[in-house]
Input
Amino acid sequence: MSQYREIISNGLWKNNPATVQLLGLCPLLAVTSTVVNALGLGLATILVLVISNVTVSLIRDYVSNEIRIPVFVIVIAAAVTMTDMIMQAFFYDLYLVIGLFVALITTNCAIIARAEAFASKNSVTSSLLDGLFMGLGFTGILVLLGAMREIIGSGTLFANMDLLLGAGSEWLSLTIIDNYEGFLLAILPPGAFIGLGLIIAGKNLIDQWQKKSAESALQQTAT
Amino acid sequence: MQTLGKNMLRSAVLLGIFAILATALVAFLYDNTHQRIAENKRLFTLKKLHELIPPDIHDNVLDTDKITVRDALLSRKNPVPVYRARKDGQTVAVIIQAVAPDGYSGRITLLVAINRDGSVAGVRVTEHRETPGLGDAIETKKSDWIHLFTDKTLTEADHHWRVQRDGGAIDQITSATITSRAVVSAVNNALRYFEQNSAFLLDES
Output
């Protein structure tokens, strides 16, 4: 049980692909101008990560060391292509917005990194959990960054959510600041770098603060 | 030596099997989705066209009644599609795809709908890379600017087909003069092309 808890906390916080491993920055920076784009790409990434992790773990005993990288590449490419087709068939409106970046999931090194570092050495259940929570951790950062950039950049939150959730979810769209002129920097790529920097700084701050309070608690029990 | 050869063979066969399996899986999914995908694309085009020419003023299928033309007025490089809207066999309007080569960040692709009498029925931007927050006001989602072309004709004196900054009569988008200028001249060119080739475009030659 504790082993699974370790996997979950690694994916969501301690070893988060976006803030700690800094993997997959290309899609991370490109699609986070609004929450809906970020969430769409995040869900697609989770799907690919889970498929690739489970498959790699299933075949880990049959694939010899020499050919494991090409096999991983085949698995990931197939998973991405299938995700791409499924999106085109069932979420076409969203595909029009983030379609270009779905193909780029292939280049998201987080996926091959998890296949190589984790799934090729662990059981199917662990790999499934690892894929799911690494994906969730990545999506969480995507959505957080998307929300920051959307509020600062265009003064709205959850705009165009119906692209992802279907008609009837327009009520989610919030106008945070009325008659907002927009802050261009937040929408353009530099805004993504600055935003991600702030998020990483925030995470480190929390880690430090936790460490300090743990230390002071230790000192108190010692004295 | 023999074991090395065996190992290599085993790896090669294994890799081959994986490649075949993955390809088969992708092919299977493609087979089951490609019709749906093609239909999605068609519906999307049709929706764009119907924004310009409402379904009640024509009775043909817009997206299949299509010809391809090549003219420097419309696009410097590629041939572009022209869609015809017909009612009772007569062409009532055409929708021309025009490319403005000189946007602020590259090409802007437009759909220009022109009525039989040569007046603009409407203009939409289908593809662009203009600055978010400034030049993207050419999208209907962001502002109403693009609607000001509706009902305009070529007969207005030539210099009217310019933005105010250049002494013309058309409001430019604030802080996006280059974008506005590119769109205005592309629409103007599409109208001129229509005037020169109206018999052919209306399918009456």
